[in-house]
Amino acid sequence: MGTDLHDLLRSLRVWDVDLPAFDPAATPADPLALFTAWFAEAVAAGQVEPHTMSLATADEAGMPDVRTVMMHGADASGWSFATHAGSRKGRQLAARPHAALGFYWPAQGRQVRVRGPVTAAPSAESQADLHARSTGALAAALTGRQSEVLASLEELTRESQAAWERAQHEPDAPVPSWTLYRLRPDEVEFFQGDAARRHVRLVYRRTAQGWAKELLWP
After folding, report:
1. Which of 41, 53, 168, 171 has the maximum number of C-beta atoms within 10 A of its C-beta?
2. Model's pTM, two decimal places?
3. Across all residues in the chain, what is the average pLDDT?
């Protein structure tokens, strides 16, 4: 007999760990500083792959799309990630250059949501970002054709093997379509879960005078 999805869902529990306290009154003026602190705490707490994030975009018709990608950095210029310009998300960002990011760190019951406009970095910077990553990352980029229809897994194996060999012998191989994107946040929300469901939500909103902070009902 197959697994009953609803019974399985009802059997699950969330945040069966000691959750940290969060005092919004003690937060810094800039959301990047708080994000950096929370990210370091997620790493220290043993959160698996804390640098993965959901990336939400929309196509020309306004239909939403979401996937999990790797954060490449976060600084005063914004949160960065990379992909091929011709991939589905690359095409969507070209048509509608706005996006949202979502981080979830269940080890501490925390979420961070980031929204804002997205810009593409110059080619030289995008290539430098790619070549600073692993051989596997370069091989994947060299394989290319992201989001195109794949005829068979055998074709993927052949193309991937050739890309791995090139990446190993040519670590600076160019991938012209590889693009580093930056999301400059207009809004950043920090969510701290609470076992009693009194979740604390603090949102930073960009204004002409700087960042404004507000609490939200959970």
Report:
1. 53
2. 0.92
3. 95
